[in-house]
């Protein structure tokens, strides 16, 4: 019997085998979880995700742009048809226009700000709304943040503001969902890892170089370590833990930039 035997959930944000969502999903699968996955609309996106999810026997792999309420509704409707109840949601989704990540922060355009906040923060609230009646008691919601939420990190720009809102969202959602459904909500604040999204952050290589010079463990983290922490937070191992931001960053956050 694995830690996640008999548990079912939704994983939002697998794009390829470097995705942090995929590292978490791999640990959940190893422990016996059954999962539904989304992908961005388009055949290429679907092929990339199915290459990973077909071998683990995922029954639900569907398009869902988290900026579109109709698509979110359809996606969770299909999950409901298949599962009836769910034990977890992993939300590992973020987006900001390239300009907003490469220009100076003060130049951020209203449209770019709104889109980044919508996809990177509001989408967690939207997903919880659609899943609300499906949550089993003790279910767990997990999202992914970064230190740029609470400290200035060069180049992180509007995404830092989105992550600050996301971390606050974790606290407010945990209060409501804990009260109404006994559902837990947490975030992992991960150290830098090479992924599709991180490639878009201006000066990401500099961030990667900086961590080993300052972090207490004198290294960067491995994406695997986000996977392991994800398993802890999604499983009953963390049954008394909610509303928290959990740093998985080799201790870098205690030092700061
Ligand atoms: P990734 O590119 O693999 O994952 C980001 C995902 O967001 C992709 O699957 C992409 O398809 C999805 N996405 C973007 N716009 C979307 C939309 N409109 N609708 C639905 N999905 C959409 O990169 P990642 O680094 O694994 O990112 C996962 C999460 O981890 C993000 O929230 C990111 O900010 C966070 N994070 C990453 C790092 C890092 O260094 N890689 C560090 C800390 C936090």
How is this structure best described in words?
This protein has helices at residues 20-30, 43-53, 69-83, 98-102, 110-131, 157-181, 204-214, 223-234; strands at residues 8-12, 34-39, 60-63, 86-91, 135-145, 184-190, 245-248. With 257 residues, the protein is of the alpha/beta class. α3 (69-83) runs parallel beside α5 (110-131) and α5 runs parallel beside α6. The radius of gyration is 17 Å and the shape is globular. The mean pLDDT is 97. Nicotinamide-adenine-dinucleotide binds at residues 13-15, 18-21, 40, 65-67, 92-95, 119, 144-146, 190, 192-193, 195-198.
Task: Look at the structure and give the mean pLDDT.
Answer: 97
Number of strands: 7
Q: Report the radius of gyration as a whole number of Å.
A: 17 Å
Bound molecule types: nicotinamide-adenine-dinucleotide
Helical content (DSSP H or I, runs of 4+): 40-55%
Structural class: alpha/beta
Largest sheet: 7 strands, parallel
Spatial strand arrangement across the major sheet: 3-2-1-4-5-6-7
How widely separated are the two ends? 43 Å
3D shape: globular
Q: Beta-strand percentage? A: 15-25%
Number of helices: 8
Order of helices and strands: EHEHEHEHHEHEHHE
What are the segments in which pLDDT stays under 50 over at least 5 consecutive residues?
A: none
């Amino acid at each position: 019997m694995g830690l996640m035997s008999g548990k079912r959930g939704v994983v939002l944000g697998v794009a390829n085998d470097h995705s942090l969502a995929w590292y978490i999903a791999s640990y959940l699968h190893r422990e016996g979880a059954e999962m539904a996955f989304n992908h961005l609309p388009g055949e290429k996106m679907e092929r990339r995700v199915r290459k990973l999810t077909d071998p683990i026997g995922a029954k639900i792999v569907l398009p869902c742009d988290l900026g579109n309420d109709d698509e979110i509704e359809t996606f969770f409707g299909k999950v409901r048809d298949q599962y009836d109840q769910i034990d977890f949601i992993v939300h590992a989704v973020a987006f900001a226009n390239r300009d907003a990540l490469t220009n100076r922060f003060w130049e951020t355009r209203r449209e770019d700000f709104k889109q980044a906040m919508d996809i990177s923060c509001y989408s967690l609230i939207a997903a919880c709304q659609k899943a609300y009646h499906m949550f089993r008691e003790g279910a767990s919601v997990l999202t992914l943040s970064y230190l740029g939420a609470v400290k200035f990190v060069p180049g992180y720009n509007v995404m830092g503001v989105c992550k600050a809102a996301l971390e606050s969202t974790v606290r407010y959602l945990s209060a409501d969902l804990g009260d109404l459904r006994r559902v837990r909500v947490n975030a992992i604040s991960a150290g830098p890892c090479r992924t599709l999204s991180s490639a878009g952050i201006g000066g990401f290589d500099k961030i990667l170089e900086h961590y080993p010079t300052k972090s207490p463990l004198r290294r960067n983290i491995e994406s695997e370590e986000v996977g392991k922490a994800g398993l802890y937070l999604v499983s009953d191992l963390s049954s008394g833990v909610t509303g928290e931001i959990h740093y998985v960053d080799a201790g870098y956050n205690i030092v700061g930039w």
